[in-house]
Amino acid sequence: MLVLTRKVDEGIVIGDNIKIRVIAVEGNKVKLGVVAEKDIPIIREEILESVKNENLSAGQVDDTNLDWNVVMPREDKTGR
Known about the structure:
This protein has helices at about 45-60, 70; strands spanning about 10-15, 20-25, 30-35. By secondary structure, the protein is α+β, with helices and mostly antiparallel strands. The model has no long low-confidence stretch (mean pLDDT about 85).
């Protein structure tokens, strides 16, 4: 991880087309401005983590009450 110190109105450049600038510092919060092309998604990390966790939990199934004969029917004697 690269750690930088920036003051208000100072910034950094990532690659050729992403600029991040410190807009304000208020107590323990820092306001950042991001300039990037429209096709580059920018999302807060905690929202991304929340969506990932929600997707993971949505894929989990409580199988304690499943009727396994419906979910995985057994072949009959004819091989079907």
